[in-house]
Amino acid sequence: MDPVTPAGPGRASRVVRRRPAGDADLVRPTGVEDAPPLPDGTSVRAPRAERRDDDGDGDGGDLPPRPRRAGWGPVTGALAPHAGALVVGTVVLAVLVVGLLIALVGSRQPSISGTSDPAVVDTFDVPDGSALGELPDGESWEATGTWEVVAGAAYLAAAPDGGGRGFALLPGSSDRARIAATLYGLADDGGLVTRYQGPDDHIALLPVEALGTWRIDVVAGGEVVATESMGLIGVEEGMRAELVVRGDRAWVIIDGQVRGAMDVGEAPDEGQVGLVAGLESGGSTRFDDVAREPS
Question: Rounded to an integer, what distance in angstroms lies between the CA atom of residue 95 and that of residue 92?
Answer without folding.
Answer: 5
